Amino acid sequence: MAVGLALFAVMVGAGLGSSANPTPELVPQETVSEDEPAALTLVVYVSGWVATPGVVEVVEGSIVADAVAAAGGALDGAALEALNLASPVLDGDHIQIPGPGEASAGAGVDQGDGLISVNRADASTLEGLPGVGPVLAERIVAHREANGPYQEVEDLLDVSGIGEAKLGSIRDLIVVP
Hints:
Layout: H1 2-17, E1 41-48, E2 54-59, H2 64-70, E3 94-97, E4 108-109, E5 116-117, H3 123-126, H4 134-147, H5 164-170, E6 174-175
Parallel strand pairs: 1-3, 5-6
Antiparallel strand pairs: 1-2, 3-4
């Protein structure tokens, strides 16, 4: 029996030390771990000049263009130039696709009674707020991009240059949806 074990050890050792014909298995395997979170689904209402207006579902991280595509795409003549098609979509958004001659300041992502959405507005739009110049507007956008969407108006207090007085002067002009 000792001879059998010794012979086995020699054979295993020879097999491990041999590299003349390596045969690594390099077959890529796509596996989905049960620990990986599933993509969050956002529900968005798309209306106006699209093939199938209504409620659509898109994955988290989608942009307005994705929601328009999920609604069957824009119809010929839709005034897409009135929209920021690269704007991120949030759960519960209403995206209005204007038709010919309908392009106006109110077109696009519904911002609630003409208020400026601090989660949607670009820096130039934010400059329209009282006391918000180019530098502060860029800080608001940069903070949003670094930390995600504002959850409540008071989150703006985390932006350098916005204190209670500044927030008080713009509070009634902004929304966070």
